């Protein structure tokens, strides 16, 4: 940690050891290496990042620069080789498996490129699923799902089987599903990477408006400059580092 960053933290929080109140994410010196075919791939080579609560950040960069790796670490889907990641004041390095399960369920909602809906379930059931898995009663889970699905313009599709929806509609269901347990953080990995430009526009609007109205902090990975333009802030990665 450099002195200037420590000083900045000290100034904004009044103490040098804690995360500033307004920062939801603090990433410090994070590296991630993979072993592949007898060689080591250094996917992340020292990432420092601070994201304020309510901010919408786009992470751009060419394929292979480490964007998804960073998002997966923040989503609690994988762990760094070194460095610290603090989310909502808690250091993910100290998490047990049970902590990670709760974190993925309650703190970080994830939207994937390929939607990952359960095709035979209805739209409502797909959106409600993480709440049902968290033990929220069925009626409340469905009420929450219906409200979110209405916000993303799918109130007319509630009872439809997910596989019958267009790609853009499926991704809007995935956004509702990501928000169902009211997470503080929403992570979106190339959410429009598999969509035509018109559907992509609808998905980006839904993501931005819903997250803004609920004051969510959003990290969106994209290789599209057009998609990134909706963010409050754009960060560019190259070779496992921010430029
Ligand atoms: P991006 O999302 O920017 O396309 P990634 O984070 O997916 O980049 O990948 C960064 C680098 O790490 C690439 O060289 C990729 O091949 C490598 N990589 C990612 N995941 C793995 C893995 N599970 N095993 C080995 N190498 C990986």
Name the features.
243 residues; alpha/beta; Rossmann fold; 6-stranded mixed sheet; 4-stranded antiparallel sheet; 10 strands; disordered N terminus; binds adenosine-5'-diphosphate
Describe what you observe in this structure.
With about 240 residues, the protein is of the alpha/beta class. The protein has a single domain (about 55-80, about 95-240), classed as 3-Layer(aba) Sandwich (Rossmann fold), CATH 3.40.50.300. About 35% of the residues lie in helices and about 25% in strands. It has 8 helices and 10 strands. The protein has helices at about 5-15, 65-75, 95-105, 125-135, 140-150, 165-180, 195-215, 225-230; strands at about 25-35, 40-50, 55-60, 80-85, 90, 110, 185-190, 215-220, 235-240, 240. The strands form 2 sheets. A 6-stranded mixed beta sheet has the order 6-7-8-3-9-10, with helices on both faces. Strands 2-1-4-5 form a 4-stranded antiparallel beta sheet, with helices on one face. Helix 5 (about 140-150) crosses helix 6 (about 165-180) and helix 6 packs parallel to helix 7. The protein is globular and about 50 Å long. The model is unreliable at about 1-20 (pLDDT under 50). Adenosine-5'-diphosphate binds near residues 61 and 69.
Look at the structure and name the CATH superfamily: P-loop containing nucleotide triphosphate hydrolases
Structural domains: how many: 1
The first-level CATH class is given as Alpha Beta
Structural class designation: alpha/beta
Unreliable residue stretches: 1-20
Gap from first CA to last CA: 18 Å
CATH topology assignment = Rossmann fold
Over the alpha carbons, how many angstroms does the gyration radius reach? 18 Å
Q: What is the general shape?
A: globular
Compute the number of helices.
8
Proportion of β residues?
A: 25-35%
């Amino acid at each position: 940690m450099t002195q200037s960053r420590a000083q900045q933290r000290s100034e904004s929080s009044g103490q040098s050891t804690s995360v500033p109140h307004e920062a939801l994410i603090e990433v410090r010196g994070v590296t991630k290496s993979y072993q592949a075919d007898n060689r080591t791939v250094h996917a992340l080579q020292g990432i420092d990042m601070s994201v304020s609560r309510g901010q919408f950040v786009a992470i751009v960069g060419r394929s292979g620069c480490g964007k998804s790796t960073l998002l997966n670490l923040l989503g609690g889907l994988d762990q760094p080789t070194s460095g610290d990641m603090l989310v909502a004041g808690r250091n993910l390095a100290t998490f047990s498996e049970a902590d990670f399960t709760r974190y993925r369920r309650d703190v970080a909602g994830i939207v994937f490129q390929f939607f990952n809906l359960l095709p035979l379930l209805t739209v409502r059931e797909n959106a409600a699923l993480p709440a049902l898995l968290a033990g929220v009663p069925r009626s409340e889970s469905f009420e929450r799902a219906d409200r979110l699905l209405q916000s993303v313009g799918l109130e007319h599709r509630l009872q439809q089987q997910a596989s019958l929806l267009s790609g853009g509609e499926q991704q809007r269901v995935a956004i509702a599903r990501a928000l169902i347990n009211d997470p503080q953080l929403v992570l979106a990995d190339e959410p429009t990477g598999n969509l035509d430009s018109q559907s992509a526009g609808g998905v980006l609007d839904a993501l931005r408006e819903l997250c803004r109205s609920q004051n969510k902090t959003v990290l969106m990975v994209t290789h599209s400059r057009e998609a990134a333009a909706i963010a409050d802030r754009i960060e560019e990665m190259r070779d496992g580092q921010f430029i």
